[in-house]
Design goal:
61% helix; Tail assembly chaperone
Length: 154
């Protein structure tokens, strides 16, 4: 229920449910641009270093995406200098995400082969799906370990 001028109003707006694939294969099927990317190891096999690297890559990717969306909506975002800085920022973020992916695939050269002929902006958008998938999988892996060791979840 929302309040409008002191009167409670039922919010009838339907929210679109976000579906996060359960498997890498399903992610690739739903994000066809990922076809050809070597399959990374599952989140349940992440070492502490892998989980930290993922956390950094995810945080950077989402922060850049969020900041750029705000700038895009800002009236001052139309300058060429702003556009160039946004492209550089996105490209650097894609580069770091590629570095993370190379650290969790059996064939890092396969990641480079996958990028051949690929638009960095398309990779950036595809990586938003990859980080959502891994965040979900890492959460499930953590919950599973906690329940199997008797650790209480808050």
């Amino acid at each position: 229920m929302a309040t409008d001028n002191g009167v409670q109003v039922e919010n009838t707006e339907e929210k679109e449910e976000v579906h996060i694939p359960e498997t890498w294969e399903a992610l690739v099927e739903g994000t066809s641009v990922l076809t050809g990317l070597p399959e990374p190891k599952p989140a349940r096999e992440f070492t502490f270093a892998d989980a930290c690297a993922f956390n950094e890559a995810r945080t950077e990717l989402l922060a850049v995406w969020s900041a750029q969306e705000r700038r895009r909506l800002d009236a001052d975002a139309g300058t060429a200098q702003t556009a160039v800085s946004m492209v550089k920022e996105r490209n650097e973020t894609v580069g770091r995400m590629l570095g993370f992916l190379k650290s969790i695939v059996p064939d890092p050269a396969g990641v480079d082969a996958w990028t051949t002929g690929m638009d960095p902006d398309i990779m950036f958008l595809a990586f938003l799906n990859v980080v959502a998938y891994y965040a979900d999988q890492l959460g499930k892996a953590s919950a599973s370990k906690a329940s199997s060791t008797g650790t209480k979840q808050n």
